[in-house]
């Protein structure tokens, strides 16, 4: 393929792999274009996009040259090539790489070196992916904005005043600006889907345990690691590489190397005859008018393609969901963070101190068994609402944007579809993702739905029945093929 750097960077991973196999593009060509884009647009840690904690261009260049040779050999003798051979992959900093820093943005972890690779890093490398950069996150991945004293402010390529979301904000920003082809992410309350929604990219929260994590917090049943990309097919490609049993995570399950869309039809016709639930507010979330309109447009396109759109009204409130998740965090993540950062509290970001305090307060009032009962109530509501439908469609976010440098210690004001202004006590209530971490056996795919009035993308979530990964990719591929997310 002859073309400019922009033309090369516009290729999906799936298309680039086809070019590699045909000999019309070399992995080193794609990497050179990617590095040039990073050098041109990433900028500084104050006013730039600032998506990376570290670049690894030297080792990436050597890996790309080796991939070039491997494709030459494969074309000569028909040998097999690994699933991601030659594709640039940016990994989230928390996904440790042996011999590299593993600081998670915290002063308490400054200078810490990873002794081994995170399981998803092992799998990316085994599949021939080229890790050329590591992406930013907020401290300990505990915010839905991405800024820290360690790494500065990460900004949204679509609107530099806005955050790309978090905690996988660097991943979303890098994908949206063409600085990587694929990216790894993680999700405990929306940390994959929120940045996907705000950056016009695709993010997948797999069922709990489907993608292996790093002990001991891999055992937290709200969390999970996952893929981000610019297309649904690329997200499925990386999900297949990351998924499956791993000896380091005894909660991991299922076969490795199987794409979640492997047995699914693709294209708009794939949704014909499906019953897809539509819930615009998940109870009382005050959804911004542009987000509501874009979600309704996605539903109309699915209906025109032959799906039956079924109105759904979940009985939740933002207060109920916030109480439920913070009771959970108060017994697991909050104490882990407090122990890790003991003695360095003065150096924590305001959002981190607030998270630890909110989690502790919730745990003081709700025991762990009571927390499990709160979880069960949400799960029961969702199971009832999804009875008789194949998947649920809902917005990813209720708010159009978050400020790139925001801390939101006093909550957030949101304007609903009727023009009313709501004050939410916690800014996490501006995202519609955490109910599906409570119901974490449900797969959820976040895909673009259009553009908001403030120049920031919007997104929708496709929620499947427990463990039904194929369905969310089937619907997501149809939404993409229908052009629903085109800004």
Describe the structure.
The protein is an alpha/beta fold and 487 residues long. The chain has two domains: 5-242, Amidase signature (AS) enzymes, CATH 3.90.1300.10; 272-317 and 369-481, Amidase signature (AS) enzymes (Alpha-Beta Complex). 36% of the residues lie in helices and 15% in strands. The chain has 15 helices and 15 strands. The strands form three sheets. It has an eleven-stranded mixed β-sheet, sandwiched between helices. Strand 9, helix 9 (289-304) and strand 10 form a beta-alpha-beta unit. The two termini are 27 Å apart.
How far is the first residue's CA from the last residue's CA?
27 Å
Q: Which range does the strand content fall in? A: 5-15%
Name the CATH architecture of the largest domain: Alpha-Beta Complex
Quickly count the domains.
Answer: 2
Radius of gyration: 21 Å
Overall SS class: alpha/beta
Give the integer mean of the pLDDT values: 96
* Shape descriptor: globular
Main sheet overview: 11 strands, mixed
Q: Could you give the order of strands across the largest sheet?
A: 1-3-2-6-8-7-14-15-11-9-10
Determine the fraction of residues in helical runs and give it as a percent range: 25-40%
CATH class of the largest domain: Alpha Beta
Q: Examine the coordinates and then state which fold CATH places here, giving the name of the CATH topology of the largest domain.
A: Amidase signature (AS) enzymes
CATH H-level superfamily title of the largest domain = Amidase signature (AS) domain
Domain Amidase: 29-472
Family: Belongs to the amidase family.
GO molecular function, one term: catalytic activity
Protein name: Amidase
């Amino acid at each position: 393929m002859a073309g400019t750097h922009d033309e090369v960077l516009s290729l999906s991973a799936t298309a680039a792999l086809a070019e590699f196999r045909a000999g019309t593009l070399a992995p080193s060509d794609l990497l050179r274009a990617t590095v040039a884009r990073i050098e041109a647009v990433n900028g500084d840690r104050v006013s730039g996009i600032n998506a990376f904690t570290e670049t690894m261009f030297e080792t990436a260049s050597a890996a790309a040259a080796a991939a070039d040779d491997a494709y030459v050999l494969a074309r000569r003798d028909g040998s097999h090539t690994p699933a991601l051979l030659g594709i640039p992959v940016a990994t989230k900093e928390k996904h440790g790489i042996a011999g590299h820093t593993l600081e998670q943005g915290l002063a308490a972890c400054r200078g810490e070196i990873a002794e081994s690779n995170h399981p998803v890093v092992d799998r990316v490398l085994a599949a021939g992916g080229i890790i050329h950069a590591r992406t930013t996150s907020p401290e300990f991945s505990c915010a839905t904005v991405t800024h820290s004293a360690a790494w500065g402010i990460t900004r949204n390529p679509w609107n530099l005043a806005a955050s790309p979301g978090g905690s996988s904000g660097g991943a979303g920003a890098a994908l949206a600006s063409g600085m990587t082809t694929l990216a790894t992410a993680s999700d405990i309350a929306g940390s994959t889907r929120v940045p996907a929604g705000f950056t016009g990219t695709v993010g997948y929260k797999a069922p709990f345990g489907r993608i292996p994590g790093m002990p001991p917090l891999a055992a937290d049943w709200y969390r999970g690691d996952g893929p981000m990309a610019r297309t649904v097919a690329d997200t499925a490609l990386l999900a297949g590489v990351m998924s499956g049993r791993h000896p380091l995570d005894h909660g991991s399950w299922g076969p490795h190397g199987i794409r979640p869309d492997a047995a699914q039809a693709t294209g708009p016709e794939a949704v014909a005859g499906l019953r897809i639930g539509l819930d615009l507010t998940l109870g009382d979330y005050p959804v911004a008018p542009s987000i509501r309109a874009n979600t309704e447009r996605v539903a109309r396109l699915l209906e025109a393609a032959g799906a039956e759109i079924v109105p759904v009204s979940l009985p939740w409130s933002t207060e109920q969901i916030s109480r439920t998740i913070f009771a959970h965090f108060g017994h697991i993540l909050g104490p882990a963070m407090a122990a890790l950062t003991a003695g360095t509290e003065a150096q924590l970001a305001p959002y981190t101190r607030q998270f630890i305090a909110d989690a502790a307060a919730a745990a003081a009032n709700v025991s762990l068994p009571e927390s499990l009962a709160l979880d069960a109530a949400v799960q029961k509501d969702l199971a009832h609402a999804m009875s008789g439908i194949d998947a649920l469609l809902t917005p990813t976010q209720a708010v159009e944007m978050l400020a790139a440098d925001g801390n939101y210690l006093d909550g957030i004001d949101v304007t609903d579809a009727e023009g009313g202004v709501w004050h939410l006590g916690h800014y996490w209530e501006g995202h519609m993702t955490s109910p599906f971490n409570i119901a974490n056996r449900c797969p959820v795919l976040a895909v673009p739905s259009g553009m908001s009035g403030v120049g920031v993308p919007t997104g929708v979530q496709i929620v499947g029945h427990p463990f039904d990964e194929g369905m969310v990719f089937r619907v997501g591929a149809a939404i993409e093929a229908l052009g629903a997310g085109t800004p």
